[in-house]
Amino acid sequence: xxxxxxxxxxxxxxxxxxxxxxxxxxxxxxxxxxxxxxxxxxxxxxxxxxxxxxxxxxxxxxxxxxxxxxxxxxxxxxxxxxxxxxxxxxxxxxxxxxxxxxxxxxxxxxxxxxxxxxxxxxxxxxxxxxxxxxxxxxxxxxxxxxxxxxxxxxxxxxxxxxxxxxxxxxxxxxxxxxxxxxxxxxxxxxxxxxxxxxxxxxxxxxxxxxxxxxxxxxxxxxxxxxxxxxxxxxxxxxxxxxxxxxxxxxxxxxxxxxxxxxxxxxxxxxxxxxxxxxxxxxxxxxxxxxxxxxxxxxxxxxxxxxxxxxxxxxxxxxxxxxxxxxxxxxxxxxxxxxxxxxxxxxxxxxxxxxxxxxxxxxxxxxxxxxxxxxxxxxxxxxxxxxxxxxxxxxxxxxxxxxxxxxxxxxxxxxxxxxxxxxxxxxxxxxxxxxxxxxxxxxxxxxxxxxxxxxxxxxxxxxxxxxxxxxxxxxxxxxxxxxxxxxxxxxxxxxxxxxxxxxxxxxxxxxxxxxxxxxxxxxxxxxxxxxxxxxx
Length: 535
Description:
The protein is mostly beta strands.
């Protein structure tokens, strides 16, 4: 585990309450639902239940936890509440998040467990390996698992959809991690409440800490904004903070004194929305730092958790009033359904790349999975982006044919999948270099290639019709059409698992270029192109 401590100075910036930002905000949804810029409140069923965190669920409803009520609650966009008891005498549910499996995942503070809750309310509890860990918050990671904080255990936990739990210890100093969110960089970002710091943990467990340049902040929630930065609340300083991924900190002071900013959520309008527990309000802050606040009708409501709802409104919990609130945003015409799947870009491995699997080669050691996913402008938004190898993790470089598949989905259920295949040779000898390099040979020569792909895969190592070659552009390598099967013959050497292959080239190819395609049908299957210039 690699640990860094990064301390940054604070550039104090007082944000201006901008009424104009209110007039410019428009989001999709049903304009007839409610009057814009008003707040509706819906009572929960348990008296003194202390509704805590709230999240947009996979079933089109809002789901919330009741800290003292010991239940997980569901509220429809129309305000109908249902509560589901937790099978524990004092579970103290805290954070809640939607998983990629269509279920809700809940951190149970006193039960020392993570609960999986189906949309029908059925629950499965997964006890933590470490006793008295005190799980507080939970969020979906870029690797398709749920990540959570252990406040007393001073660890970050990971639980797979099958319930397998891993724990990563944080540095010494009793950091007491609380809130956690998925970052725009694929890592998880979390609050270290006892150190006045924000932590980052990569999916491989590497931890980095960012000091905020001050102490006594009483950090609250954390969320990723539309600008890709990490936003956080400082309850003691009445501040919303912005942490750039390079560690630069910018604080914004709230207009209402002593408001105790608590929860954070990214709104459908691209702004970060927040609750003011003691200010009894909800508010928004734009990426540039403009702030607007809205009073909650019930006095002393104690707004706490907050989220964007399926109806493109803002929903929040009233911890002291036993209510769920809805901030009604102005709406444009109903949006057109998103029918376009997300785009996927895999930068590593390059499709069809071939490498030598020899220890000590730096290029081999540097081969890690690297990919990005994005939804189209105006789409429903990216819901998931998961690779068969996690982003940033090492690729399989044992001899053979391998692949990386990335699958992405958007919030309207459109799914895309892209696969890149690659070949790792145990040995490769001959006049032809592995792609993407070009080889230069004399036209009319008989070219012999010897390779070992990690074992005897039989005579049918290539697909039917392969190897084959075709003319290509000598600069770009683009096909010029006119492909033809080669005159080569594949011969298998049973001793040493070596394959020998001969390519009889044509004198007429002088001054031209060709791509020789080797289409392997073993393992995951992969085709590589050997680029050749003939003299």
